[in-house]
Amino acid sequence: MTRGEQFVQSLPGKTRFYDRNERRSYALTRAVAARLIDDPTLVREGLAHAHQHMAADPTRSVHFELWQELLRRDVEEIVRSLLDDTPRGALLRDTQPVFVVLPDDVRSKIIAAERGGVSLGSSAFMSALSDVSYSTSSVPSRDTARPRSRINPFRRR
Q1: How far apart are CA 42 and CA 151, in angstroms?
Q2: CA dihedral in degrees (27, 98, 45, 47; nearest 10)?
Q3: How far apart are CA 112 and CA 101, in angstroms?
């Protein structure tokens, strides 16, 4: 188990969720949080993403200011705030910038563990991730990002 996984496991975890989507999102955020502890340089990636995608958008300017202030702090404090079971923690999770793109095999393993009813705070959940290799590579650029489909599913044919 990595230092980040140990740190995330030591934090009090959220136990009540509105639905399975919120639970899955929280599980994925826990994995990202562990990577932030393991590689604090990812905080710069998140700040760059926030500058690029949030700063110019007037509807997200409040969130940008919130994140800009938080990302100046220690990485452990960032992770605590991100995983906090409070309205502010929920807002941070809903508006978080992209720190790292989790590989598909990691995402699949997290979702499978979550669907299997494994407690998010348990060592079994974190050990389910330990045998999966992951890269803390930076956020893909527009050139390497997956192209979006141009098919409109709501259009009549």
Answers
A1: 34
A2: -110
A3: 18
